[in-house]
Design goal:
The protein is an alpha/beta fold. The protein contains eleven helices and 13 strands. Strands 2-1-3-12-4-13 form a six-stranded mixed β-sheet, sandwiched between helices. A three-stranded antiparallel β-sheet has the order 8-5-9, covered by helices on one side.
Length: 303
């Protein structure tokens, strides 16, 4: 089995996918080869799986929000309904800055964005990454302008901010946690309705303290198998998700340690859970003029 991680090593998808692959190997009775294939905001690796023979031996991975909006961005001709979803965790985005910057809370950063439109550098994992969704949502709710610096994954984006190459990163908590605990990043706000209590650090305040009307949704991650594979493949994976992944202590510990939510969902339940985020993201990019296809023309109605 070839499990494609369409992002660089060390990022959020790579971290959790390797844990899940290890948990599945015993139940499958065979090795799962995890292959990092970054590029074009995850669409290069995902296309490898789309183009492979539908025999069940090629799986994709990543954020369901990415998979469901590639068609809107003009990256890939695929919809979320074209895939069997096997979710593992739900992630939240955190806005952090290099400790050398003067910003001590999110309000100070917002003021700086407004005072210096288009000048403050923001590092993300690409145009349809969760970091890009986060900063676009902030822009929509606050009217700021920023300088987007794109990388081939969440880990390089975080490292860029740690090194001072960029000033801000709004990537996922799981990608930032080690640097936050080491005081190499200063977290200012979490894109969630409640504060995030991060093990080994403390509370990161909700962005709603400054932007009370901003809508926040969790981003579900998982493994994706294209429809058209043999039924026995899906039956086997459904069974493994219910009996192995849903009870995985390693996955639960990973989520608790890194500021994520344990989310072992599959089937219709998984589709229902991810669709609100896909709607939110697709229309966010359309309204910002950063989408090529209007969402409701490809089955994504405005939320």
């Amino acid at each position: 089995i070839n499990l494609i991680v369409p992002w660089g090593a060390g990022g959020s998808t790579d971290q959790v996918t390797r844990i899940v692959a290890g948990e599945l190997e015993d139940g499958l009775g065979q090795k799962i080869v995890v292959v990092n294939q970054p590029g074009a905001s995850g669409s290069v690796g995902t296309k490898t799986v789309m183009d492979a023979k539908k025999d069940g031996y090629y799986w994709a991975s990543g954020a369901a929000g990415d998979l469901g909006t590639y068609i809107v961005k003009g990256f890939l001709e695929t919809k979320i309904e074209d895939w069997h979803l096997y979710l593992d965790v739900a992630n939240v985005m955190v806005v952090s800055v290099n400790p050398g910057t003067p910003y001590k809370d999110f309000g100070e950063l917002l003021k700086a964005f407004k005072d210096n439109p288009g000048k403050i550098t923001v590092a993300t994992a690409g145009e349809v990454s969760m970091g890009a969704v986060a900063i676009e949502a902030i822009r929509k709710n606050s009217g700021i302008q920023y300088k987007h610096v794109s990388y081939d994954g969440g880990n390089p984006a975080v490292i860029a901010t740690v090194s001072g190459e960029t000033q801000v990163t709004p990537q996922l908590a799981v990608e930032q946690v080690d640097m936050i605990r080491a005081n190499k990043l200063r977290p200012l706000a979490v894109l969630a309705d409640e504060d995030l209590n991060l093990k080994g650090y403390g509370a990161i305040p909700s962005i709603k303290k400054w932007l009370p009307n901003m809508k926040t949704l969790p981003s579900y991650f998982g493994i994706f198998v294209p429809k058209g594979v043999p039924n026995e493949v899906i039956q086997r994976l459904d069974n493994l998700w219910a009996t192995v992944i849903a009870k995985s202590t390693k996955l639960k510990d990973y989520a608790n340690d890194r500021g994520a939510l344990f989310a072992p969902y599959y089937g219709k339940d998984a589709q229902d859970r991810v669709f609100p985020f896909i709607q939110f993201t697709a229309w966010l990019f359309w309204d910002a003029g950063k989408a090529k296809t209007k969402p409701d023309t490809v089955g994504i109605p405005r939320p």
